[in-house]
Specification:
The chain has 12 helices and no strands. It is an all-alpha fold. The chain starts with 20 loop residues before the first helix and ends in a 6-residue tail after the last helix.
Length: 234
């Protein structure tokens, strides 16, 4: 992950390399991906960079600012679709794919990055792009915001479940999946027993895009109703 001059995972810090905000954020991201969010502290980060902890404060205000910086790295990594050309549905699908790709690029840090609320110019890019899609499609201003927040809530919730799921729940341990399927089938709950093979594990990718399509379908119906009964939308 590190750029030229930064230390790699597990390598000692090089105090001769100039300390910058970018270098601190890259080191923080590397640390979180190696050891998890709980490992992140100013003292530990300074040790990895080979500097004194107080020198970090010349570039960042503290741990909260580092977390905001990591969230900004995540948001700026989202590849925005072209502003014109595709249908509004395909532009939303492209944003959803880019959002998931950015989150899964750094899964351990995703839980930190997905829950930060930022209003910096860089972090507003995907928000503005999403709103533009809904407005271009014909949704009014309030509906565009509702649509944006519905997609964000779904994406964050689904991706947090994905990055925090155990290998067994993700279907990577066949024996565990088989055991859970059998327990659900014998649970005495008819509906759960009927869907036991699907409820026992989670195909995260399939469920993510199922949800995206469900939201798109709902918004498509709302848009059609608005065109048919414009007075009802006022």
């Amino acid at each position: 992950m590190g750029s030229a001059g930064t230390t790699g995972p597990g390598e000692p810090g090089d105090a001769r390399t100039p300390l910058t905000r970018e270098r601190i954020l890259e080191a923080a991201l590397s640390l979180v991906e190696r050891e998890g969010p709980a490992a992140l502290s100013m003292r530990r980060l300074a040790r990895d960079l080979g500097v004194e902890a107080m020198s970090l404060y010349n570039h960042v205000g503290g741990k909260a600012e580092i977390l905001d910086g990591l969230a900004e790295l995540f948001l700026t990594a989202i590849e925005l679709p072209p502003e014109r050309g595709d249908s509004w549905e395909d532009r939303i699908r492209a944003l959803a794919r880019a959002f998931r790709k950015a989150a899964l690029a750094n899964p351990k840090a995703a839980a930190l990055m997905l829950t930060r609320q930022l209003e910096t110019p860089a972090s507003m890019r995907p928000t503005d792009a999403s709103l533009a899609v809904f407005l271009d499609a014909g949704f009014d201003e309030q509906s565009a915001v509702h649509g944006l927040r519905a997609f964000i809530a779904f994406q964050i919730g689904t991706l947090l479940r994905e990055v925090n799921s155990s290998p067994a729940f993700s279907g990577q341990v066949p024996a565990a999946a088989h055991g859970r399927t059998e327990r659900l089938a014998a649970s005495g709950f008819p509906a759960a027993a009927r869907v036991a093979p699907y409820l026992a594990t989670c195909d995260h990718e399939a469920e993510y895009y199922f949800g995206v399509e469900a939201l798109l379908t709902a918004m498509r119906v709302m848009l059609a109703e608005r065109a048919t009964h414009p007075s009802d939308a006022e």
